[in-house]
Amino acid sequence: MAFTIAYSKKIKPRSFRFLKSKFLSIAPFFFLFAVFFINLVHSTNLLADENTSGFSIQSLETLMQDRVYLLNANFDYQFSKEAIEALEHGVPLLILVDIEILTPRWYWTDKTIAELEQGYLLIYHALSESYVINNLNSGTQNNFISLRQALNFLSKIKGLPILDAKLLNLEKDYYLRVRTHLDIESLPAPMQPLAYISSDWQLSSGWYEWPLQK
Fold it and tell me: Minimal CA–CA distance to 186: which of 132, 114, 123?
């Protein structure tokens, strides 16, 4: 964790009067911007109340095969209307699945043993009216004729290798943390500012924990 030490420097009276006059001259613009920002956030919240979009984790399961831990998971992807419209207008959507394996520590934060990230790029091809999912880890590509089929495929992970069992100490306990979310930083730059403050784009399951069976 990084700490920043801030300090202030005394401003001479003359300089302060100059800064004050400059501020007053641009104050109306700050006021108009503040009003615009508040209205934008308020309208976003109203839309969120009517929106049932969101990501969630339905189930998690770990099993061992040939001394390697495998993950099975089921997700529920409910994209917002805004995200679907952007997708169908040529904006690729990157869905990430973050996986962490940790061991508890009473004297400090829990220790991370391993972490990995699965990336799935969802694309719409207007000419063929088809949806494509690219697995950015394996390089595989799958095509679907409807968004429902694509999301159904995306919602299932089966037999994903996550950890070699030899890395674990049999005398310790371990647990799994998983979340899935839409990567806002992968959106086109003009879309990112609104996406960061709009609930229509804040699509994440949050972290879900599950004990790792030895």
Answer: 123
Residues 156 and 185 in one domain: yes
Rounded-to-10 torsion of CA 184, 186, 151, 196: 10
- Side chain identity at 79, as an amino acid letter? F
Instruction: Give the 3-state secondary structure of residue 84.
Output: helix
Compute the distance between CA of residue 141 and CA of residue 135 in angstroms, rounded to an integer: 6
Read off the pLDDT of residues 170-208 as tens digits, 9 standing for 90 and up: 889 999 999 999 999 999 999 999 999 999 999 999 999
Domain count, the chain: 2
Cross-strand partners of 139: none
Residue 43 lies in a domain: yes
- Say if residues 116 and 162 touch (Cβ distance below 8 Å): yes
Contacts of 119 (CB under 8 A, 6+ apart): 94, 95, 96, 97, 135, 136, 137, 183
**What is the pairing mode between strands 130-135 and 93-103?**
unpaired
Torsion of CA 70, 76, 80, 84, to 10 degrees: 70
